Each structure stands twice: as structure tokens, then as C-alpha cells.
Amino acid sequence: MRPNLKARMTRLFSNGGYQVDGDADKIVTLTRLASEMGADIIKADPTTNAEDFHRVVEAARVPVLVRGGGKEDQKVVLAKSAAIIAQGAKGMAYGRNIYQHDNPSAGIAALMAIIHNGAGGDEAWDIYNRG
Fold this sequence. Notes:
Layout: H1 3-12, H2 24-36, E1 42-44, H3 53-60, E2 64-67, H4 74-86, E3 91-93, H5 96-99, H6 104-117, H7 121-130
């Protein structure tokens, strides 16, 4: 295996194989293909730069849910989630970023505030800490 490919594969498949490439061009292409094949809703990886996620939404032409990816610091998850929702995602399909934290119900409350009330990352972080 080529050295740079090996390093990339190691990074992507560390932490239980749930890392995200984050390459907006790849995600947009795969999303567009899913839409063209007749998907009614698409669950897509987050882009590395959350401000690029609007490209995924535009390519989909159907509702897009962002998947969580690898477990991250909760404050980072909330900030990125708020930015992605602001870019047009209709919801989230998160697992480990909720159930592997000490207070899953606080995490859910913070994410619901982002989705339903337009809370930003800092506001969601405050909600999480109150939970």
C-alpha cells in the first residue's frame, strides 16, 4: 500500500471505523448520485468545513440529514451541528455523540434546540451544561 494511502486509511478507520473523510467534493458527488437514483431523503457525512454543507443540500434536492461520524468533544459537536443546520440540513442522525456521553438527555435537548429553535453552538452548549 502506498505510504500516503496507508496514512489516510489509518486515519479514516481509527476509532472504530467511524471517521469521516469530510471532503465536500466527494460528499456532494455521492449525494447527487443518491438523489438521481431516487432517494427521498439522504443521510450524508458532514463536510470538514461546516460552511460547505450547503453544497450537499443543494446537490440533494431532497431533505438531508447529517450523520454524526466519530465521537468528538460535545462542544465541537454542538457548534458544528448548528453550523450545518444553518446550511440547510433538515436534521441529524447521531449515535455515539449522544449515547456515549455522560448526559445523553442534555445532549438531545441541546440538539433539539438547534433543530427546532435555531439555537447556535454557544446557546446549545449552555443548554447542554444546564441539563
